[in-house]
Amino acid sequence: MPETTPRLEVENLTKTFPGGWGLHGFSLQIPAGQIVALGGPNGSGKSTLLKCLAGLVRCEGAIRIDGRVVDGAPASRAAIGYLPQIIGMPEHATIGEMLDLFAELRGAGRETIPLPEGFIRPDDVRVGVLSGGQRHRVALAIAMLGRPPLLLLDEPVANLDEEGRVVFWAILGELCRVDGVSAIVSSPSPTELRGVADRAVSMVDGVLTGDELLTRTGDDLSDLLEACG
Question: How far apart, in whole angstroms, are the C-alpha atoms of residue 73 and residue 64?
């Protein structure tokens, strides 16, 4: 049988900042439909890796999605959904304005957001009145616009309550199993993802130090989604 092209190929990714920290020859392949938990201590390079993959930081090396080199073209941007660790939005903007702006940039309709009704506040609510968790929900919706084949999520449940976490993990699992979406999920506590992720990758000082296949445990994620209504 012919080899299947990986969803994501990273070869010798290098980004060095003053002081020597950053990424040092990082390589990784991820197949379609796989959820990867990205762990490592603070300063290990997790956020830098995701920013490089998202095209937000200049770096050396090769990045390919489904065999195509990632560049600044619209097709490359549309293939990636990115959630930053620190979320910044204009205080005066409404939720609807934020979603419409990014929907236009991504060339995707609002109906492509795979989140249940009520997950985020109504369109006319201004960002300035949202709590940290509510802003986080809006940022997740933006990252998932258009159902991109690759999601780069930097601590996606850090500010979510328990219900929000269950709903989010259920939806992510469904996207990966049914639509073949791949995801890299950064977490300071990767053990939290052992019931969700298919694979655990660890970093120290910008270098890949561990790569382990996982067995999902607990209830099926689609059952969790149904239980949330």
Answer: 13
Within a domain: residue 45?
Answer: yes
Give the pair of three-digit tokens for residue 208: 């890949």
169, part of any domain: yes
- Note the pLDDT of residue 85: 87
d(CA 111, CA 147): 10
- Give Rg (Cα) of the chain: 17
What is the reported pLDDT for 224?
A: 40
Q: Which residue has the higher pLDDT, 130 or 222?
A: 130
**pLDDT level of residue 102 (50, 70, 90 thresholds):** very high
Within 13 A of 169's CA, how many CA atoms are on the CB side? Answer: 27
Q: Which single residue is written with the structure tokens 């939806």?
A: 171
CB 123 within 8 A of CB 95: yes
Q: Is residue 116 part of a domain?
A: no
Question: Residue 160's domain is classified under what CATH number?
Answer: 3.40.50.300
List of residues 6+ apart from 157 with CB closer than 8 A: 164, 165, 168, 169
| Measured CA distances, 116 to 5, 18, 119, 137 (Å) | 32, 44, 6, 11
> pLDDT band at 221, cuts 50/70/90?
very low
Q: How many domains does the chain have?
A: 1
Residue 79 token pair: 């293939």
> Which one has a higher pLDDT value, 135 or 194?
135
Range of the domain at 165: 8-89+149-227
Decide if 119 is inside a domain. no
Q: What is the pTM of this model?
A: 0.90
